[in-house]
Amino acid sequence: MGVSKKILVIPGDGIGQEVTAWGKKVLETIAVNFNHTFTFDEGIMGHVAIEATGDPLPAETLDKARASDAILFGAIGHAKYDNDPTAKVRPEQGLLKIRKELGLYANLRPIKLFDDLLQASSIKPEILQGADILFFRELTGDVYFGEKLRSEDRATASDLMIYHKYEVERIARKAFEAARTRRKKLCSVDKANVLEASRLWREVVQEIAKEFPDVETEHMFIDNAAMQLIKDPKRFDVVVTGNLFGDILTDEASQIAGSMGMLASASVGDRVGFYEPIHGSAHDIAGKGIANPLASILSAALLLDISFGLKDESQRVIRAVDATLRQGYRTMDIANKHTANDMLLGTDAMGAQVLKNLN
Ligand code: IPM
Ligand code: MG
Q1: Domain encompassing residue 247
Q2: Same domain, yes or no, for 21 and 89?
Q3: 132, 159, 247, 322: which is the annotated catalytic residue?
Q4: Which of 195, 224, 257 is at the close of a domain?
Q5: Catalytic annotation present for 191
Q6: Do the Cβ atoms of 229 and 236 come closer than 8 Å?
Q7: Which atom of ligand 1 is least distant from the CA of 76?
Q8: What does residue 181 show for φ and ψ, rounded to 5 degrees?
Q9: Hey, whose CA ends up nearest to atom 7 of ligand 1?
Q10: Where among 229, 257, 285 does a domain terminate?
Q11: d(Cα 168, Cα 138) in Å, to the nearest integer?
Q12: Which of 6, 247, 275, 356 makes the best surface tag, with the fewest CB within 10 Å?
């Protein structure tokens, strides 16, 4: 028996428009092949929403999100805001608000290298081979959501790094539970040698660890973690960390998967799941048709698995991506700089190749 689900697609800004079209097509193909009924709706968010309504997250989009079973999102941001720190309204506010409003406190970022991409990373193959890390980035707290202040003379500014015990508890539990189903190792990353918020973080993680005696727990400072990640990525299994450290570490970790264009993420929490590539809107290449659609396609795979419990369907998508890479097809970001064997494709041709391998 097939399932019947409502999916909201929010392409967002820049290359989000181009790549999300392929995540959606993959979901449509899976629905047909496995007799499921997926009903799609579309919403606006980010720069496109500011242009259309003045609001980076219009109420209509939020209502549609609440009424859906899962959300597939593209990317957010526009170059014109990056060099304008005084802008009152920013595209990113839309993404932060939807994360908060939907209670998406756990951001899962799986880092796994497809065998055929060993050469795509700037890290040595022998360091990379076999690395398999699952990041749990806390997503609705920290310095991202703490009070922001600017003095009257505008010469002083601050962002409050704040965590509550319950926020650390719930993300830690999710991470420990995941570690149980994997290699049973959890590394919690903080800066407890300096920050009070990190000392609370460590205290709470140590407490939760007692509920999971079968999981080997270690605590690492963020600066050391950033170094270890490149030096020996294989030493990590599940990593749990706060919002800001997680944002930075996962961009770094994308190099372990070859490219930012390969990394998908799932944000979960109270109810509906939200799926997005970890890459941004990449305005430098937007509209050129050369962006890598695989992160969006892999986000669709995460959606099938985590929100709908469709494990076989999710694996089918991952296998289709794997097959496409084995055939030698590459987008620009994952092309092998050392050999000429790769067949370089644009966004649409790459997406079409994955669809072909799905059938
Ligand atoms: C991410 C992004 C966002 C973040 C930006 C676009 C607000 O970098 O999802 O990693 O910092 O969380
Ligand atoms: Mg980021």
Answers
A1: 122-257
A2: yes
A3: 247
A4: 257
A5: yes
A6: yes
A7: 6
A8: -90, 0
A9: 92
A10: 257
A11: 8
A12: 356
Q: Which ligand 1 atom is the nearest neighbour of the CA of 250?
A: 10
Any atom of ligand 1 within 6 Å of the Cβ of 95: yes
| CA–centroid distance, residue 106 to ligand 1 (Å) | 14
| Total count of domains within the chain | 2
Q: What is the pLDDT along the chain (359 residues), one digit of tens a residue?
A: 899 999 999 999 999 999 999 999 999 999 999 999 999 999 999 999 999 999 999 999 999 999 999 999 999 999 999 888 899 999 999 999 999 999 999 999 999 999 999 888 889 999 999 999 999 999 999 999 999 999 999 999 999 999 999 999 999 999 999 999 999 999 999 999 999 999 999 999 999 999 999 999 999 999 999 999 999 999 999 999 999 999 999 999 999 998 889 999 999 998 999 999 999 999 999 999 999 999 999 999 999 999 999 999 999 999 999 999 999 999 999 987 656 667 999 999 999 999 999 98
In a domain, 325, yes or no: yes
Q: How far is the CA of 247 from the centre of ligand 1 (A)?
A: 7
Residue 55 is among the residues annotated as catalytic for this protein: no
- Mutation choice for ligand 1 from 92, 142, 244, 245, CB with most ligand atoms inside 8 A: 92
Residue 331, classified by CB atoms within 10 Å of its CB into exposed (0-12), middle (13-18) or buried (19+), is buried
Helix (H, G, I), strand (E, B) or coil at 183: coil
Residues 67, 80 within the same domain = yes
Nearest CA to ligand 1 atom 9: 278
Q: What is the CATH number of the domain that holds 205?
A: 3.40.718.10
Reported as half-sphere exposure (CB side, CA atoms, 13 A), residue 352 has a value of: 5
